[in-house]
Write a structure and sequence with these properties.
It is a single chain. By secondary structure, this protein is α/β, with parallel strands linked by helices. The chain has two domains: 121 residues, no CATH class; 180 residues, Rossmann fold. It is built from ten helices and 13 strands. The strands form three sheets. An eight-stranded mixed β-sheet has the order 1-4-3-2-5-6-13-12, with helices on both faces. Strand 3, helix 6 and strand 4 form a beta-alpha-beta unit. The radius of gyration is 20 Å and the shape is globular. 39% of the residues are buried.
């Protein structure tokens, strides 16, 4: 059976989470961190998003891995990594890592996710498929620290960060995060396998984040339900609408929640009034060029960078090693 280590409580107490949410909501331009999307319902809604026709990243990334699995495994082996510890950041349902197992043959698999119960269920299923695999699930918010428990293998670490989740960080924060993965005292990585969304037509990008069925809208609004649960707030979802747009200047998709009418939200000791049309910024998803991401990885401390793309050049998979 998999081992599970939940260090979320040690690093993010209820009080600190409430302080973080309160500070974000009371800023002149209110915001909520995208990490708060992923409660149990949010995780399932995101699974549904990945199946939508408009949402190309998941299937495009999967096609790259399917076409280049052998090349990726060879690149990992050529880096001198033999008994790999595959650390899956934002593991979710563990499905992407599962497809890599026959090619990378890791000794240990470490799914890391803030949504602990969802990850636990997925890891249990993965263990039945790969009974000999050493699985150590870690519940934590890895956006601020990559310091992992002692049960995680200390050598031959391969970080796996698919789905273009790195795009949620601003470029300076993305650099700091990548530096953590490369740092011998933090991530202790021997290599990083990274999926990243690439710059493309704005209409394609916007459709991916504002689907016709409205699943992404439900996913975005669910962050308010999560805030209600964490803060004891009284957000009314009927008073908010989902907004997604492409910011060409900053090369990023932005997601917002916009107040439909004047509304006031209250929680313990605080309140915030929103005028009709005022927005809460919930997510950025930066889009990169191949050269731009290669440069960022080298700046972070990785010496060797390779990449593979789909035929349209919509998505890139990068292998970076030291």
């Amino acid at each position: 059976m998999p081992q599970f280590i939940n260090i979320t409580c040690a690093t993010s107490s209820n009080a600190s989470i409430q302080q973080e949410l309160t500070a974000s909501l009371l800023k002149p331009a209110a915001s909520l961190s995208p990490k708060f999307f992923y409660d149990a319902l949010g995780s399932k809604l995101f699974e549904a998003i990945t199946l939508l026709d408009e949402y190309y990243p998941t299937r495009t990334e999967a096609s790259i891995f399917e076409a280049h699995n052998a090349h990726i495994a060879r690149a990992v082996a050529d880096s001198g990594i033999k008994t790999a510890c595959l650390i899956d950041l934002g593991a979710g349902n563990c499905a992407k890592a599962a497809e890599l197992m026959p090619f990378l043959s890791p000794r240990q698999y470490v799914p890391v996710d803030i949504s602990v119960d969802f990850m636990r269920e997925a890891a249990d299923k993965l263990q039945t498929r790969f009974p000999a695999l050493d699985i150590v699930g870690v519940g934590m918010d890895f956006s601020s620290s990559l310091t992992l428990p002692d049960a995680v293998q200390s050598h031959d670490r391969v970080f796996f960060y698919p789905g273009s989740s790195l795009g949620n960080f601003s470029p300076p924060d993305a650099l700091r995060f990548l530096q953590q993965t490369a740092d011998s005292q933090q991530g202790k990585a021997s290599g990083l396998l990274l999926g990243i969304d690439l710059v493309k037509d704005a209409a394609v990008l916007q459709a991916a984040y504002d689907d016709a069925v409205g699943v992404t809208a439900a996913f975005n609004k669910n962050v308010l339900l999560h805030a209600n649960a964490l803060l004891g707030a009284d957000f009314d979802l009927r008073q908010w609408r989902h907004v997604a747009l492409f910011n060409l200047q900053d090369s990023r998709i932005e997601m917002h929640l916009e107040a439909i009418t004047n509304t006031t939200v209250r929680w313990a000791g605080h309140e915030r009034s929103f005028a009709a049309g005022e927005r809460i910024h919930t997510e950025n998803s930066y889009k990169y060029t191949l050269d731009g991401m290669s440069s960022l990885l080298k700046q972070a401390g990785f010496s060797h960078v390779q990449h593979w793309t789909d035929a349209q050049g919509w998505f890139g998979v990068f292998w970076a090693s030291k």
